[in-house]
C-alpha cells in the first residue's frame, strides 16, 4: 500500500523543491554546454528516454499543478536539447556495424517503453505525482553515469559540476519526500542508493579528470 503523505510546513517544502529544481536546471544546462563543447551527448540514453517520458507525462498526460508544471515544461525543453545532441553525436558511440535505422529505432523503442512504464506505474498505483518513477529513474541515471564513464574511458561530455549539482538536487528532493513519506522504506532505500552512486561517480570522475590532466573544479 502506498503510504499517505503527512503534513509538511509549506514554506519549508517549497523552499526545498525550489532548491532542488534550481540544481537540476543547472545540471541540464551544464550537460548541454559540455555536450556542445565536446561534440557528444552528456546523458546516458536510457536515462534520457526516461527523463523525456516523465517530463512529457507529468506536463501533458497527468499534468502537475502549477508551478511544477511550468518546471516540467522547462526541463522537457532542456531534455529535447540533450536528445538532439544524442541523435546528432550518439551513433559514433556504437559499433561500426550498428546501422542508422537500428540506432534510431533503438532510441524510439526506449522512449516508447519508458513512457508506457511510467504511465502504467501511475495508473496501477494511482500515484499521479510520479515520485516513485522519478526516484527510480534517478537511480538508473546514477548507475548509468558510472557505466558511461567506464565505457567511454574518458571524460568527454562530463564534469564534476554536472555530478555535483545532480547530487545536490536529488538530496533536496529526497529530504522533501522523506518529510512527506517518512515511513516509505522503498523511497528511503532509493534515496540512499542514489546518494551512494552519486558519491562514487563524483569521486571516479574527479580522479579521471586529474588523470587526463584537467583541473576538475575549473572545467565546467
From TrEMBL:
InterPro entries: PaxB-like
GO cellular component: membrane
Top-rank taxon, per record: Bacteria
Molecular-function GO terms, alphabetical: lyase activity
Transmembrane segments: 12-31, 43-64, 70-89, 101-123, 129-150, 162-181, 187-205
Cellular localization per UniProt: Membrane
Key words of the record: Membrane, Transmembrane, Transmembrane helix
Pfam families per record: Pyr4-TMTC
Membrane topology label: Multi-pass membrane protein
Chief place where the protein resides: membrane
Protein name (Swiss-Prot/TrEMBL): Integral membrane protein
Source species of the chain: Adhaeribacter aerolatus
Amino acid at each position: 500500500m502506498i503510504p499517505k503523505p503527512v503534513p509538511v510546513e509549506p514554506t519549508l517544502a517549497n523552499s526545498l523543491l525550489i532548491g532542488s529544481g534550481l540544481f537540476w536546471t543547472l545540471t541540464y544546462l551544464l550537460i548541454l554546454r559540455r555536450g556542445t563543447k565536446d561534440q557528444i551527448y552528456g546523458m546516458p540514453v536510457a536515462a534520457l528516454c526516461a527523463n523525456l517520458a516523465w517530463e512529457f507525462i507529468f506536463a501533458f498526460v497527468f499534468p502537475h499543478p502549477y508551478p511544477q508544471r511550468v518546471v516540467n515544461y522547462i526541463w522537457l525543453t532542456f531534455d529535447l536539447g540533450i536528445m538532439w545532441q544524442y541523435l546528432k553525436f550518439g551513433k559514433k558511440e556504437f559499433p561500426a556495424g550498428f546501422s542508422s535505422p537500428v540506432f534510431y529505432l533503438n532510441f524510439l523503442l526506449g522512449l516508447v517503453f519508458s513512457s508506457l512504464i511510467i504511465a502504467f506505474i501511475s495508473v496501477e498505483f494511482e500515484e499521479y505525482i510520479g515520485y516513485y518513477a522519478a526516484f527510480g529513474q534517478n537511480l538508473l541515471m546514477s548507475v548509468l553515469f558510472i557505466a558511461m564513464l567506464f565505457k567511454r574511458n574518458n571524460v568527454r561530455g562530463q564534469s564534476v559540476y554536472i555530478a555535483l549539482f545532480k547530487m545536490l538536487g536529488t538530496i533536496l528532493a529526497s529530504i522533501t519526500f522523506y518529510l512527506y513519506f517518512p515511513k516509505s522504506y522503498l523511497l528511503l532505500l532509493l534515496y540512499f542508493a542514489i546518494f551512494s552512486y552519486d558519491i562514487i561517480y563524483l569521486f571516479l570522475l574527479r580522479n579521471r579528470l586529474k588523470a587526463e590532466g584537467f583541473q576538475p573544479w575549473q572545467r565546467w
